[in-house]
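User: quick one
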Amino acid sequence: MSNSFGQLFRITTFGESHGKSIGVIIDGCPAGIDFNLDFIVSELNRRRPGQSSITSQRKEDDYPEVLSGVYEGKTTGAPVCIVIANKDQKSADYAHIASQFRPSHADYTYFIKYGTRDFRGGGRSSARETANWVAAGAVAKMLLKRVGIHITAYVSSVGDIVLKKNYKVLNLSEAEQNIVRCPDPASADQMIELIKKIRKQGDTIGGVVSCVAENMIPGLGEPVFNKLHAALGHAMMSINAVKGFEYGSGFAGTKMKGSQHNDQIISEKGKVTTRTNFSGGIQGGISNGADIYFNVAFKPVATLMIDQESLNEAGEQVIIQGKGRHDPCVVPRAVPIVEAMAALVIADFVMISQSTKLGALSDHK
Amino acid sequence: MSNSFGQLFRITTFGESHGKSIGVIIDGCPAGIDFNLDFIVSELNRRRPGQSSITSQRKEDDYPEVLSGVYEGKTTGAPVCIVIANKDQKSADYAHIASQFRPSHADYTYFIKYGTRDFRGGGRSSARETANWVAAGAVAKMLLKRVGIHITAYVSSVGDIVLKKNYKVLNLSEAEQNIVRCPDPASADQMIELIKKIRKQGDTIGGVVSCVAENMIPGLGEPVFNKLHAALGHAMMSINAVKGFEYGSGFAGTKMKGSQHNDQIISEKGKVTTRTNFSGGIQGGISNGADIYFNVAFKPVATLMIDQESLNEAGEQVIIQGKGRHDPCVVPRAVPIVEAMAALVIADFVMISQSTKLGALSDHK
Amino acid sequence: MSNSFGQLFRITTFGESHGKSIGVIIDGCPAGIDFNLDFIVSELNRRRPGQSSITSQRKEDDYPEVLSGVYEGKTTGAPVCIVIANKDQKSADYAHIASQFRPSHADYTYFIKYGTRDFRGGGRSSARETANWVAAGAVAKMLLKRVGIHITAYVSSVGDIVLKKNYKVLNLSEAEQNIVRCPDPASADQMIELIKKIRKQGDTIGGVVSCVAENMIPGLGEPVFNKLHAALGHAMMSINAVKGFEYGSGFAGTKMKGSQHNDQIISEKGKVTTRTNFSGGIQGGISNGADIYFNVAFKPVATLMIDQESLNEAGEQVIIQGKGRHDPCVVPRAVPIVEAMAALVIADFVMISQSTKLGALSDHK
Amino acid sequence: MSNSFGQLFRITTFGESHGKSIGVIIDGCPAGIDFNLDFIVSELNRRRPGQSSITSQRKEDDYPEVLSGVYEGKTTGAPVCIVIANKDQKSADYAHIASQFRPSHADYTYFIKYGTRDFRGGGRSSARETANWVAAGAVAKMLLKRVGIHITAYVSSVGDIVLKKNYKVLNLSEAEQNIVRCPDPASADQMIELIKKIRKQGDTIGGVVSCVAENMIPGLGEPVFNKLHAALGHAMMSINAVKGFEYGSGFAGTKMKGSQHNDQIISEKGKVTTRTNFSGGIQGGISNGADIYFNVAFKPVATLMIDQESLNEAGEQVIIQGKGRHDPCVVPRAVPIVEAMAALVIADFVMISQSTKLGALSDHK
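Assistant: Done. Structure below.
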């Protein structure tokens, strides 16, 4: 059951990085949604390695094949299965670590849990899996389009280079104009420079992805154990290499007084809104209609081009060699993944919210 | 379904702060666990208001009544229902806000979502609910006792007063020796002083609760959508007033290089372990046997003793008066809540982990 | 998780027959439903023992106490907890079987599964639990009232006395006019006579409850694993003593030819309908708007007033004495239970059906 | 969520009869199970059309492709995805019914529910889907092999030809020796003759499949809402064309007295057993170690070679022509499907049962 996510708009995924293919079943997508395969391809292209000089040079030419659930350009209400073939597998790249535990990878924990592991590319623990999420998230975005909700993520820090500007003063669409996906060109340049320097060292660096959901519907979120931000947090913490999640004021809010932090409720053009938005668009786990914004912390990639000491399955000390094709910094490619997971969560809550509408219930009669 | 949490060790809760009582059903607790009612009482006492000079003076003399699932001192495998009566309800305290939306409370979002609200004490959005979690968490701790896992939370910051010491150099059991629940006496004094000052101002302040799970079993956690840290994050984000969650290196890890951050795997007395533990005891969503540690960010309490501008249900501007009995800082009382939610998550994963043990399967034959 | 039922309109129950009380949490009930406590009482009265000369003389004066989720006569969207105290417990009645396994009871299986058992009244396996279901089902009926769906169950056989008439030619409301709950007065008399005769023998007898859902909404049911009839079957098979379930033509349909069995689709007053209804109102797992009807088979009650041979926990042969207060035939009291479970299933599917309505989705914008 | 089945051993399926392929993800299968692809193929061959003179002449040369979750002949703990291509699709066969509602098919209900339908072969409502279940069931059987449980289904009636012998006096392995899959050769001949006669008439006929699970583990099943027989019933009612389910004494049990029906508990060679087994191996929803047996009622196939009146989407009266390649009687091919669903249910309960074993819990320490 642990390979499914969501309640009504629910995905179930499969696939290892070096198997025949990976894929996702989207179960619960309503019938009649306009299905745009090109959009899925373009979202996958935003995620794939090899897209720029600061990402892994591995080539995953991801082409999503839709096996079910779509007929004449629309979803049918049946489960939508999307499969993506694994093409550029170089299992040989992994032969040297077949019985070694790479530091801060999942090699040891998979071995101890499952008693076996598919060492080629990390098997199920590989970030290859996130291609499934991006494909499914693209379908969730198609649904959200009908209700007008728009989700945008961007890189807000790489190592010590931190974008200090609030998303409100940024033009978020600029994020896609540079290879690091930071909407502030000056910061973007610094980030790119840092990543290049780190890569030369054979090292890696962490960073933060920020995300904003605009044109939100109020009333989404299901207290007490399915609060909107708890589900978003769960989704983000599911992404490989994530170490933290905060929304609204986040950790900085812990240093504030209530008199500073409380969002005064006001009426603007006859609409209820708030003067500030430290709440991050969510109160008591339910959206209030204001923008939702949150940050996701990514650790530095664990695969280095530097030799490291470790153990093998026999418990002997070994040297893990720095080889392979990996990202020096994961955040630029994580941007579409964060968006996808956010879209999956919010689409699900839109549907859950629908289920309790009494007006609609009476229409049946 | 949103009032249930957990998969095999699963709780379902009910109750408003000003109804007759609140309660929790624990479904899936194995039969034969030693059931200690006194322990539940002591855990509830750690959470209840009125326990010290820096918490709310509201009195909740919480006595858990066990309605089912326990027979002759042991769990029977049937659902355990624990009910806690609401005694010290002063609904009159809330009359003045019956139709007003308190800033940064859930008043407006509940109103917009449910079309109605039980204004007395925040209804379902009240932190009163967390008494259910503490009671259920105490039962989870009884189960964890059998496998030796031990969970301890403590206050690591209040406003700007930050405990900078690593949990390894602290004596965590000292946390319960002072009213702010910080294991470093010097920091504790400063925190208490700050809270008292803030309260005098009629204001509130945020803070951070840290938590450690020791003597962990390796192999807990279910990739890819039920990773151990994702479930912990979901649990923590469910707690009222929480704005962020990080584990292991957390947000600080985003500024580190891979060569600093990677935990070198070593053999110590024939046991696999790591030289550092930036991973926070979890790799690829699965525990590796090292300590799990994480931080939970709490915003300042939204109820102030200061007047605030807001709107009422009719959309008219009103002044919300500062009245009632509330905490100037929520983190000291949040400590047992964080522990309880962590215990619920880990107990659940212990059971899930059991379900796949092939050796045990063969024993059936 | 096994004490919860339903997906969006979801109940979780607790309680043993001889504990302090039993109860149910209804999670997911929409806000704003008119809540009628008297109706719950009247439904419980239809189920309770001691209501007539052919039921158990045990007295359960069931009074439902609503602990949460209702405010000023309406549901609030919060979980509704209903608790029913156990009053007429005579644990002494069970002392003689404390360590004995009653034939065809759950004594042995509970003992083997849980390693312990609360022998008093069967613990969790007691039909006392069904009072929870009737209470929750009454709330489901309140929801179904808004959409106009009406559910009626009745006794259609007791032992060899079989009501051969189709429900269409019966006046179902007459079922409540006699103590056996058969809508055909002549058959009812025969059934009552048979039950009285059986009781005199200290024996028990089985029977069938039939159920009809009228004024159905088309489109309810979720293929492929949550077909409407599969969920109804699951619900009915959950009721104590049930051995079988069939809907529409049922087992008799296995002897028919397709040319006889197919329901010809016709237009009647501009509405799509069928000439016959062997389908039982469901095709491909989805309601077609025609009446749903089904039968539920109940075995004879296992508790006899006749001595029986058996084993005790030590594996020694013992004589189980015929004692206690039990029903000679369970079907009259099962009628409201069958209705309640059907209401829970259908209310759930109404809500699930709501969740995918695209028109409503667009209204958000 | 409605395309998933099971809790810990959980399948999620996709695919329409006339799409590119169908498939199933098995999530939760423990690591280390011996994986036998040939066995899956042989099970699919038992289900496929065209296997004998009394089944549909449609050819589905089902070859299961395993995309994930298996490595070097063993399951890895990762989700196992099995895809089966659709090869012998003749969409043209369905062109004549593109906008017509076939009587007693799901055409009308899918249309009303989803607002659209993929008319080619019934889309998602096609029995083609059951190939997924047979493939997944084969994997469940691999798991059950480790615990020794053995499941066998067979045809026990076709129309009026009823096999009256109890399974105990039959040699169940003989079922696979004839094309109707009835273990009694004399009855088998009569059934085959009847099916051939019916087919000549262009008509169809119903029947019953019986199933036995031998060498059962006691203690499987999760009261109160996941009783073993309720889950089996749910599984069987999910199969296309099923109208009823009964276990143990079933509907016949409703005519029995308690003194006849109760299974006397005895000790046989130091093992607890019962003199009779009207309970069908399950008491209180939990297996007692005796054989489980149950019957599944199948209606006559709805597709006839005879013209039928019906309506089209515009509400106009039309004649549905009898064309295509269909089974005159579904029960012979349903045998492996019934076995597969039973295996899925029981494998799931074996795993759930594992999760609560306290002895194993203590082993962790």
